[in-house]
Amino acid sequence: MDDNITLSLEEVRTLSESTLKKHGFNAQHAQAITDIIYANQLGDCHSHGLYRLFMCVESIKSKRANGTAEPTIIDAGPAVVRADANDGISLLALKAAMPTLIEKAKHNGVAALAINRCFHFSALWPEVEMLSEAGLAGMAMLPSHAWVAPAGGTRGLLGTNPFAFSWPRQGKDPFTFDFATSQFARGEIELYRRAGKPLPEGVAMDEAGQPTTDAEKAMNGAMLTFGGHKGSALSLMIELMAGPLIDDLTSKESMAAAQGKHEAPYHGEIILAFDPHLLSGGRVSENNNRAERLFADVIDQGARLPSQRRQAAKARNLARNAVDIPKALYEDLIKLKQDA
Amino acid sequence: MDDNITLSLEEVRTLSESTLKKHGFNAQHAQAITDIIYANQLGDCHSHGLYRLFMCVESIKSKRANGTAEPTIIDAGPAVVRADANDGISLLALKAAMPTLIEKAKHNGVAALAINRCFHFSALWPEVEMLSEAGLAGMAMLPSHAWVAPAGGTRGLLGTNPFAFSWPRQGKDPFTFDFATSQFARGEIELYRRAGKPLPEGVAMDEAGQPTTDAEKAMNGAMLTFGGHKGSALSLMIELMAGPLIDDLTSKESMAAAQGKHEAPYHGEIILAFDPHLLSGGRVSENNNRAERLFADVIDQGARLPSQRRQAAKARNLARNAVDIPKALYEDLIKLKQDA
Question: Cross-referenced PANTHER family, in alphabetical order (chains A, B) (predicted)?
Answer without folding.
Answer: MALATE DEHYDROGENASE (PTHR11091:SF0), OXIDOREDUCTASE-RELATED (PTHR11091)
